[in-house]
């Protein structure tokens, strides 16, 4: 039976039928996985937005020290490559965002808190960089 309201239990089925938790160890490892994937989502979203900045020709934020990305974009091929990379990163972040949303829809309170905490930690460390690198974009975890 699928829950339609929040519940607090260590027994949860997450995303697929074979991902079931029956004891505290499984449940805590599931919560840790949800937290890590949420942080990873914010890291990828940060990289996607930085790539978007590069694609429109804005200067690099000073804290980036990656030699491979510091090259100037020359010609349409380079801009096309940035567009392709941006599209792939968007696809990956969208897929992860929707999976996180589906995990929250398990209505387990612990899973919900782990995902929100992971998104918060990821935002604090990877997306909260000040006004210089802000790109207006969707902030939803599923978009």
From TrEMBL:
It is a multi-pass membrane protein. GO terms for molecular function: copper ion transmembrane transporter activity. Its main location: membrane. Coiled coil: none annotated. The chain crosses the membrane at residues 27-44, 80-101, 107-126. It comes from the Eukaryota. The keyword Transmembrane applies. Keywords: Copper, Copper transport, Ion transport, Membrane, Transmembrane, Transmembrane helix, Transport. One of its GO terms (cellular component) is plasma membrane. It is found in: Membrane. Belongs to the copper transporter (Ctr) (TC 1.A.56) family. SLC31A subfamily. This is Copper transport protein.
């Amino acid at each position: 039976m699928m829950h339609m309201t929040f519940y607090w239990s260590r027994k949860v089925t997450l995303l697929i039928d074979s991902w079931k938790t029956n004891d505290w160890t499984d449940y805590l490892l599931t919560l840790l996985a949800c937290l890590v994937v949420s942080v990873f989502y914010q890291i990828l979203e940060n990289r996607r937005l930085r790539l978007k900045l590069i694609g429109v020709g804005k200067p690099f934020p000073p804290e980036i020290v990656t030699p491979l990305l510091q090259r100037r974009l020359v010609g349409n091929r380079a801009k096309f490559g940035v567009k392709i990379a941006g599209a792939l990163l968007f696809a990956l972040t969208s897929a992860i965002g929707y999976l996180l949303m589906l995990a929250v829809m398990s209505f387990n309170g612990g899973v919900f808190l782990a995902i929100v905490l992971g998104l918060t930690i990821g935002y604090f460390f990877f997306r909260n960089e000040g006004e210089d690198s802000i790109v207006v974009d969707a902030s939803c975890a599923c978009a």
